[in-house]
Write a structure and sequence with these properties.
The structure is a single chain. The chain is about 20% helix and about 25% strand. It has 8 helices and 20 strands. Helix 3 links the parallel strand 6 and strand 7. Helix 2 crosses helix 3 and helix 3 packs parallel to helix 5. It starts with 18 loop residues before the first strand and ends with a helix.
Length: about 400
C-alpha cells in the first residue's frame, strides 16, 4: 500500500518517517498512519514516468472489460472526489489524459471539473506530490467511466480525518456520488463517525492495499467498499472516445494485496445477510460487517494509465497505477452512469437492503450482473476468493451493462 503522508495540522507540522522499498521494479512507500490520519491507496509500477502514453490499461479497455458501452455517460450527474491537499496541475493533467483518450476536455468547453477546498471555498490547501498523484488518478478515472458527468474535487486541508470528514460533508451535500480513495486503521470509536457517511447519496471507498484486517471508512456500513483484482482484457480496443468496441472481459483473480476482511467494530448490516456465511477465510463475518462489497482492477501489474505532471518522487507525466484507489472513482463513475440511465440517485445508507446486493439477489441476476471471481487471495491468513461473496472481491466485479439494467 502506498502510504504517502505529508501531514500538516493547522498549527503543528507532523513529521512522518517513510521507508521506501524497491522490489522488481515496483516501489512501495509505507508509513505508519498516526491515529486520526488517513493515507492514499495507490501503487505505481514501475516507478517511472514517460513523456508519452506507453503502458497501462486505457479507458476503452476498462470499459470494454466491464461491459460499459457508450450508452452510459453519467450525463447530468455529479461525482465528488474527496482527497487531501492540493494538486496544482489537476486541470492540466485532466485535459492531457482526456485528449489522449478522446474524452471531453475543459479546453473543449466541457465545464466538467470544479475544484474547491473542504468547505467549498476557492482558497486551496498546500500542494502535496503524493496526494497530487492520487487526485490525478481519481479525477481521470471517474471521468473515464462517466465522461459526461460533472466532477467536483473537494480538497481537504490535510490528511487528518477531521479535515477529510469536513470535506466529506461538503461533498455529500453537492453530488449524487462520492469517491474516497483513502483510509486507515479501524478504531473502537469509528461507529461515532459513521454519521459522516450516512447520507442519501452513494459513497465508494477503497478497501485498502495491505490485505486484512479491514480498514476504515471502508468498513462503515454506509459505504460501498471496493476491493482489488488482477484483470486480463481480451481483444483490441480503439483509442478514441468511449465506445470500447473490440475488447472484452478476459478474466480476473483476487489481487494479492487487496484489502478485505470482517470489521472489528461494525456490526453486520442486514444487506449482507445470506452473503456473510460460515466458510473460514472466505466469508465468515462472525456477526460483523464484511469488506469489500465489490471489486475492480487494482493490481499494479495490470494497472491503468494516469497522467500527472506534478512531480512524484522526481517523476512526472504518464504512469501505470494500481491499488484499490483505482476502484473507488471508477465504480463511482459506474454508479453515476446508473443514476443517469434510470434518472434516480442510488444510495448506500440503507442498512436493510442495498443496490449492489439487491442486483445479486437471484441466481440469474447474479450470474449476469457480476463476474464471480473464484481464485487468488490477498496474501494474509484471511482472505481467499471463493464462490459468491468473499473477503477479497466481495460479490465480484461488474458486468456493467447488465448490472445497470437490473439495479
Amino acid at each position: 500500500m502506498r502510504r504517502i503522508l505529508a501531514l500538516l495540522g493547522t498549527s503543528l507540522a507532523i513529521v512522518t518517517l517513510v521507508a521506501v522499498f524497491v522490489f522488481g521494479g515496483k516501489t512501495t512507500a509505507q508509513a505508519a498512519s498516526p491515529t486520526g490520519f488517513s493515507h492514499t491507496q495507490f501503487h505505481i509500477k514501475p516507478l517511472t514516468g514517460t513523456t508519452t502514453y506507453t503502458n497501462g490499461y486505457t479507458p476503452e479497455q476498462i470499459r470494454g472489460a466491464y461491459n460499459l458501452s457508450s450508452t452510459y455517460t453519467g450525463a447530468g450527474k455529479t461525482i465528488a472526489i474527496v482527497d487531501a491537499y492540493n494538486d496544482p496541475t489537476a486541470k492540466n493533467d485532466f485535459d492531457v489524459f482526456s485528449t489522449q483518450f478522446g474524452l471531453p476536455t475543459l479546453a473543449g468547453g466541457c465545464a466538467c471539473l470544479t475544484i474547491v477546498n473542504q468547505t467549498g471555498g476557492t482558497k486551496l490547501p498546500k500542494n502535496n506530490g503524493g496526494w497530487a498523484t492520487e487526485i490525478s488518478l481519481d479525477i481521470e478515472w471517474a471521468h473515464a467511466m462517466a465522461p459526461q458527468a460533472k466532477i467536483l474535487l473537494v480538497e481537504a486541508s490535510s490528511a487528518s480525518n477531521t479535515n477529510l470528514y469536513t470535506a466529506e460533508n461538503y461533498a455529500t451535500s453537492h453530488a449524487q456520488v462520492v469517491s474516497n480513495s483513502w483510509g486507515g486503521s479501524e478504531s473502537s470509536s469509528e461507529t461515532s463517525t459513521d454519521s459522516y457517511f450516512n447520507k442519501a447519496v452513494a459513497i465508494t471507498v477503497s478497501a485498502g492495499d495491505s490485505g486484512s484486517p479491514a480498514e476504515y471508512p471502508s468498513a462503515s456500513p454506509y459505504v460501498l467498499s471496493i476491493g482489488g483484482t488482477s484483470l486480463t482484457v481480451s481483444g483490441t480496443c480503439g483509442t478514441t472516445n468511449w465506445a470500447a468496441t473490440g475488447c472484452s472481459y478476459g478474466g480476473e483473480t483476487a489481487w494479492s494485496s487487496g484489502g478485505g476482511g470482517p470489521s472489528s467494530y461494525e456490526s453486520e448490516p442486514a444487506y449482507q445477510n445470506g452473503y456473510c456465511g460460515s466458510v473460514a477465510n472466505v466469508n465468515n463475518c462472525n456477526g460483523k460487517r464484511g469488506t469489500p462489497d465489490v471489486a475492480w482492477v487494482g493490481d499494479p501489474s495490470t494497472g491503468v494509465a494516469v497522467y500527472d505532471s506534478t512531480s512524484y518522487q522526481g517523476y512526472v507525466d504518464w504512469f501505470v497505477v494500481g491499488g484499490t484507489s483505482v476502484g473507488a472513482p471508477s465504480v463511482a463513475g459506474v454508479i453515476a452512469d446508473a443514476d443517469a440511465y434510470h434518472n434516480t440517485t442510488l444510495t448506500t445508507n440503507n442498512l436493510t437492503s442495498r443496490f449492489a446486493y439487491q442486483s445479486a439477489a437471484t441466481s440469474s441476476n447474479y450470474s449476469s450482473d457480476y463476474h464471480d471471481i473464484l481464485s487468488g487471495s490477498n496474501g494474509s491468513p484471511c482472505c481467499s476468493a471463493g464462490t459468491g461473496y468473499d473477503f477479497t472481491t466481495g460479490l465480484g466485479s461488474f458486468n456493467a451493462a447488465n448490472w445497470i439494467g437490473n439495479v
